[in-house]
Structures are given as structure tokens and as C-alpha cells.
Amino acid sequence: MKGFGMYSVGNVGWIDADVPTIGALDALVRPTVVAPCSSDTHMSHGGSGPKENLILGHEAVGIVTEVGADVKLFKPGDVVVVPCTTPNWLAKGAQNPISNAHDEGLMKSFKFLGAKDGVFAERFHVNQADANLVHLPENVSPEAALMTVDMMSTGFHGVELADIGFGDTVAVIGIGPVGLMAVAGAALRGAARIIAVGTRPNCVAVAKEYGATDIVSYKEGDIAKQIIALTGGGVDRTIIAGGNAETFAQALAMTRETGTIANVNFFDVTETLGFPAYLWGLGMANKSIRGGFCPGGARRMEKMLTLIAAGRIDTTRLITHKFHGFDKIPEAFALMDSKTQDLIKPIVYCDGIA
Length: 354
Known about the structure:
- The protein is of the alpha/beta class.
- It is 27% helix and 23% strand.
């Protein structure tokens, strides 16, 4: 079979590979619609260290083509939603009360791109299918479901980590697709005021549709100073969904005492996070700092999909570009890599796979 991935750091293209073999608990899936992610492009540039001959991609909806002997809930022909993180549920770390993402170690539930090839292939492997796959609901479109597997689940995890409650004032730094989902999740959680930090006109428009009450631009000065002035002292909760090492200190500065900073942004391995002690009240401000990776598993995906089916959220607002044909994955990937001004999220319908 063929798949799109990286030969080495900075060198991407089509890769010839063997069709994955499956175990008794696993499934083989043919993708029907996929989405490139900034994590894919980040990895292709070496952000996660050197990788060779790795098929990329971790966001997919597809059709089951084969199941292991002990799979009970799925059969060939089933249309399934595939979480970006697929924990090994037999590992002790999967029982963590905060996140199952660290099943066998730090972020080890991110099997795609980590322990094995990703979903930009004619076939891809899913471990422990009964616990990691979800049937596509009849009243949810494949496109809407595709946005749940990483963007919605990750953005909502930022909301969970921030512990947003009724009446809170919240800042969301970075309103790409994950940040936009954090805005939507904060609104669903009962935030009274949601300040979105971003500049792209289409992202700003969608942020307002999802519930942002204020927009702050980093082009107009230090975002922490702007938000402190805007709120008369700072916010109760801050979600970091974009930015760089300097953003971390800004988030701490704009968050009130007893508040929470939640990070779902990947920092680069070359970056160092630091901040002046006074921003943390010399250690006495009771400001909580949390960072977490997207949880996985079937139950979480079912909850995300239920919100869509109930009309509580429309995830398709994230989709700005659609490509038709499996051979269009490189074009969509390049678009995600260049991050044009009109981009939020591209998707690819995988037509043409036998």
C-alpha cells in the first residue's frame, strides 16, 4: 500500500509500506475523510525529534476492513470515528484519574506518529478496537465527526484542565482550530466573558460565533497588559492554545490570584519556559498551572459526538478547505504547513482507494 509521510526531517512524500497486521483485539481501517494537523507538520520539521519513513496523520473517519478474532463491537463495513489518541487500556497509566494519554508513559497513547504509522494511508491499524473506535452516528456528518477526534477533544481538554465554571472570565490564547474549540467549550461550561486572542479575520469571526465576547490582538501590544486593562485586573481562567515560550509568562500575568492556567499547546523541544517570580505572587498567589495531552478512547468520542447530535455545537465551522481524492493529501498538508490567512482547517475526502 502507499501512504503520505516523511522520509526524514524536512523531506515528505509518498511512502510504500506493507499493509499493517492486526492482533486479536485490533482493527484495520480504510480512511474515508482525513485532516492534516499542525502536529503532523510540526513533526515533519523535526519538532518531535528525528523520524524516518513514517506515515503521518492522526485524524480520520473510515470504514473497517478487517477485525481481530476477539473484536465484538465492530465488523467489516462499519463506518467509524477514530480518536487521535488510542490508549492501551491494559497499561496501568490508562487508569490515571486525570488523563489516559499517559498509558505506557508520557503521551504514549498517541500511537499514530509515535509507535506506528498514521492514518494518511490506504489502510491503518487501530489497537484495541472495541475500546478505541466509535460508530459514526446516523445524524452526525463525517466532516463534523472528524473535527471531534483531535480539535474538539483537545480544545475541550483545555476547558477541563482550566476547570471553568459559571460566571468565570476566561482568556483563550490562540484561536486556531483547537483554540476555537476551547472558546466553544468555555461557553458551554458557563463562562460569562470569553476573551479570544488572535488576529485572523475568519478565526475572529468563528470565535465570536462560538461565544467570544472580546477579541485581543497581539499586534496591538502586550496581550497580558491589554487583558488586565480590559478586565480591571485579569481573568479567572486562561487557556493556552497557541503561542511560544513567552506566551507562558503572559498567561501567568493575566490570570488573577487563585486562578488557573491550562495549557494544550505544544512547545518546541528547543524552548525553555520561565517567568519572573512576582507573576506567581512569589509562589503565594494560589495560581494553578496545568498542562495536558488530549485524552482518548471510545467513551470520550461518544460524548463529543453526542454534543454534535444534540445540536449543542457545530464543528464544521472549523473547515475552510475541502479536497477530493486520496492523492490530494500532499496538497492539503502543504496548505496546513503554510497556514495561509484564510485557513482554519483543511480536510481530504479519500476517494480513489480500493
